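Re: [ENG-882] Designed sequences occasionally contain unexpected residues at chain ends

Forwarding the minimal case from QA. Structure tokens:
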């Protein structure tokens, strides 16, 4: 489907369409030709499908300033889904075939929980490789998140991921390692959530021409970039798009799997995420789970008490990074297609330099989320049981 974020009118346009077809809309103000068209290839599992839409919509809305952004949803048909998931993406997502036959300003490719020992054995690998090749020629810039990062660097440059001894899980301090347009007005040190069992390493990336922009002593490389033909590829091993409760939802999911015997590893408590009282509560529950591994214990998980004092310390730097990404695409598109005078006018209208414009988009929530027939979508956490 097509979502139009129109900042000038402070409205969120969400359009219905016939099953399996994309929607078309006219903005209430502004020229549609001046919008950025961004594709979201949402490869997340059914339980996180709608929360991922919401997270990225909210982040783009907060970052867009005076920019007009149209967000188009695409799905990989080979991604394993339930009957509900297949029906949902059939109704609200376009196919990859539709994507491969067009140009977009940008694309965001999400990760997924790994199912195979090797990335090349994932059921969607062939389609994923096609997307990466397409993005090099048909976007101004492309963002890859988490597992999609490991897939794209493997496909394009042969960079292999490394298994971590324990899950990299929590909110970790990142330090900027160089000046880059994507890091404009981002603090020298800031914190970003991570949730992964694997990593790509700085030395391997540098050997293949990647520029590391942020690095953590505890979590390793986070953001790195490389110009791939026509497109600047931006990679996040972490999750700047996560909502406040996303890590807690993932921990709860993993704890449920452990208690039911689906996973032999009792999950570690996320680092740097909880206050002292909440962490003590989580430690006590984890010790009880280790002492009495019983599925019935899952009902006692203290989710309400744990969410009470959670703080989102990464939203502002994430918003700035994504705003810089949007402005980069505006600048590149204007430079490629317009003479100097028109280019400066286009940049000014888009809010460059950014400090001249401080208007904030207030976007309505999608009524579709409230109407969903999927019971899991009505729960609060980003990852569900």
């Amino acid at each position: 489907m097509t979502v139009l974020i129109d900042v000038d009118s402070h409205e969120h346009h969400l359009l219905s369409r016939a099953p399996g077809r994309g929607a078309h809309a006219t903005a209430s103000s502004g020229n549609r030709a001046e919008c950025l068209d961004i594709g979201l290839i949402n490869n997340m599992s059914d339980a996180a499908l709608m929360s991922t839409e919401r997270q990225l919509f909210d982040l783009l809305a907060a970052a867009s300033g005076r920019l007009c952004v149209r967000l188009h949803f695409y799905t990989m048909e080979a991604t394993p889904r339930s009957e509900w998931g297949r029906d949902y993406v059939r109704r609200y997502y376009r196919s990859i075939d539709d994507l491969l036959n067009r140009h977009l300003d940008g694309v965001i490719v999400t990760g997924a929980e790994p199912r195979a020992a090797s990335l090349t054995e994932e059921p969607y690998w062939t389609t994923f490789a096609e997307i990466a090749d397409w993005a090099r020629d048909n976007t101004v810039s492309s963002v890859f998140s988490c597992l999609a990062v490991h897939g794209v660097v493997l496909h394009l440059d042969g960079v292999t991921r490394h298994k971590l001894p324990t899950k990299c899980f929590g909110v970790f301090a990142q330090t900027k390692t160089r000046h880059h347009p994507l890091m404009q007005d981002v603090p020298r040190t800031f914190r970003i959530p991570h949730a992964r069992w694997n990593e790509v390493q700085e030395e391997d990336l540098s050997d293949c021409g990647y520029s590391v922009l942020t690095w953590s002593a505890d979590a390793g490389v986070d953001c790195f970039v490389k110009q791939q033909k026509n497109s600047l590829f931006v990679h996040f091993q972490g999750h700047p798009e996560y909502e406040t409760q996303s890590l807690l939802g993932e921990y709860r999911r993993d704890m449920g799997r452990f208690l039911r015997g689906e996973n032999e590893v009792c999950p570690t408590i996320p680092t740097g995420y909880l206050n002292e009282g909440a962490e003590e509560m989580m430690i006590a529950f984890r010790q009880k789970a280790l002492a009495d591994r019983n599925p019935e214990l899952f009902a006692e998980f203290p989710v309400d008490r744990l969410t009470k004092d959670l703080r989102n310390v990464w939203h502002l730097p994430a918003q700035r990074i994504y705003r810089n990404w949007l402005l980069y695409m505006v600048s590149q598109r204007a430079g490629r297609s317009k003479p100097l005078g028109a280019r400066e006018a286009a940049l000014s209208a888009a809010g460059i330099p950014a400090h001249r414009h401080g208007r904030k988009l207030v976007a309505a929530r999608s009524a579709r989320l409230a109407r969903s027939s999927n019971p899991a979508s009505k729960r609060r956490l980003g990852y569900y049981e």
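QA comment: On inspection the terminal residues look reasonable. DSSP finds twelve helices and 14 strands in the chain. Proposing we downgrade this to a documentation issue.
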